[in-house]
Amino acid sequence: MTRRQLNGELDTCGTLSTQNPSRVQSDPVSRVGRSVLVAIGITLFTPAYAVAPDEVNQLTAKEYAAVLVDDEQQMNCLDKLYTKESNWRPEAVNGSHYGIPQGRSIYLKTATVEQQIMWGLRYIDSRYGSPCAAWSFFQKNNYH
Length: 144
Prior knowledge:
Helix content is about 50%, strand content about 5%.
């Protein structure tokens, strides 16, 4: 059984018998060059503060939050907010509010420090847009 030929480029086994006119992936040096460019691109877009998963447990709650926030001004606002709310204590309870962000979710009662911080940041982002906006609201209303 022979395969259909595409412009005379396939032999009877269906493999290419002539050079690809665009020379895409034909030159090993070009493939190496593309690989190097991809590696450089990945390096440029990988944050310098990236933390290996096994190092996450070595960070304090504030350090972990700072990695996620990655903005000094916003982190200062978050620090003030969470210092007032829970003093960064994951076991903090105030009525029906739990954890570092003092959220009204029973989930926070058993969540890890990392989960509490991520929950709190998502809450702040969806309700206020930024930690500084949440801090501003807190200063006026004594809650967030």
